[in-house]
């Protein structure tokens, strides 16, 4: 008892020493953590502001930044594969920093959701997914991964819903989405115009005959017991009259669809991409699209290699990923073989339409 009492008494004599020791440890711990935190903050802060001030950077630094951030895993957040087609896809890597400190020029580098400034409006089976994936390599493009179908199917949900679908973007970045059905839906041009008169429109066009076969090939993959292509092409076999209202054929009447867009938008706001050249010369086509969007040409031939099995250009190894990135299994399907005579009938059918289209756009796509 005495020993216990003595021990207890001894303890009461130096409570302040214990407290002081504890306080000392706490001080050291907290100052260390503050130091660590500020270091991390400074480092990320610097990188962020450097990344975001790309517009004022000189080319060499910019090249370096791109090699580091321009791949689908860089500033464009997740890669398309990870993003899948989830509705909220396209969330950026920067969304984690909603309020970066204002930098020297006093601008706030805050990523916000904005309505798109550019749209890929068509055409179905023209190469729109490839174009979007290639464009996403650009650090100044923020693109939605899925097709929102706002102007054709979900218009009633309103612009606020549409805006909420968009990825977050910084001031100098261009927000875009692709929905190939926009090009052929009658009410879309006016609706797009009422959102923005200055929106930039991109249309990937491809030989309407091969486009139709590609379309039909996609339909077979979804509904296997569909009648053969040849029987769907004609309204009536004996007269050989072509059913131009059958969706795979109707979509290829480009002049007719473009006319509707030209009643709402000037030709200078519409850029046409050749679907064929997008495969044979992806860098050249991408260069022209970047010019049209007012962006520095950052996506170049260094980004592509040609995959012989797929018959498609693929993206060279994105950093942070061991494998090169090609388009998914549903792309580059082997086309159904079609009776050559029917092919010729279709070529003859499209010829005047194609000629009219070339004249409207002042460009010859050289389709047979």
Automatic annotation (TrEMBL):
<feature type="binding site">
    <location>
        <position position="206"/>
    </location>
    <ligand>
        <name>3'-phosphoadenylyl sulfate</name>
    </ligand>
</feature>
<feature type="binding site">
    <location>
        <position position="214"/>
    </location>
    <ligand>
        <name>3'-phosphoadenylyl sulfate</name>
    </ligand>
</feature>
<keyword id="KW-0808">Transferase</keyword>
<dbReference type="GO" id="GO:0008467">
    <property type="term" value="F:[heparan sulfate]-glucosamine 3-sulfotransferase activity"/>
</dbReference>
<dbReference type="Pfam" id="PF00685">
    <property type="entry name" value="Sulfotransfer_1"/>
</dbReference>
<dbReference type="InterPro" id="IPR037359">
    <property type="entry name" value="NST/OST"/>
</dbReference>
<feature type="binding site">
    <location>
        <begin position="331"/>
        <end position="335"/>
    </location>
    <ligand>
        <name>3'-phosphoadenylyl sulfate</name>
    </ligand>
</feature>
<feature type="active site" description="For sulfotransferase activity">
    <location>
        <position position="125"/>
    </location>
</feature>
<keyword id="KW-0735">Signal-anchor</keyword>
<protein>
    <recommendedName>
        <fullName>Sulfotransferase</fullName>
        <ecNumber>2.8.2.-</ecNumber>
    </recommendedName>
</protein>
<feature type="binding site">
    <location>
        <begin position="125"/>
        <end position="129"/>
    </location>
    <ligand>
        <name>3'-phosphoadenylyl sulfate</name>
    </ligand>
</feature>
<feature type="domain" description="Sulfotransferase">
    <location>
        <begin position="116"/>
        <end position="353"/>
    </location>
</feature>
<dbReference type="InterPro" id="IPR000863">
    <property type="entry name" value="Sulfotransferase_dom"/>
</dbReference>
<dbReference type="InterPro" id="IPR027417">
    <property type="entry name" value="P-loop_NTPase"/>
</dbReference>
<feature type="disulfide bond">
    <location>
        <begin position="314"/>
        <end position="326"/>
    </location>
</feature>
<comment type="similarity">
    <text>Belongs to the sulfotransferase 1 family.</text>
</comment>
<keyword id="KW-0812">Transmembrane</keyword>
<keyword id="KW-0325">Glycoprotein</keyword>
<keyword id="KW-1015">Disulfide bond</keyword>
<keyword id="KW-0472">Membrane</keyword>
<dbReference type="GO" id="GO:0000139">
    <property type="term" value="C:Golgi membrane"/>
</dbReference>
<keyword id="KW-1133">Transmembrane helix</keyword>
<keyword id="KW-0333">Golgi apparatus</keyword>
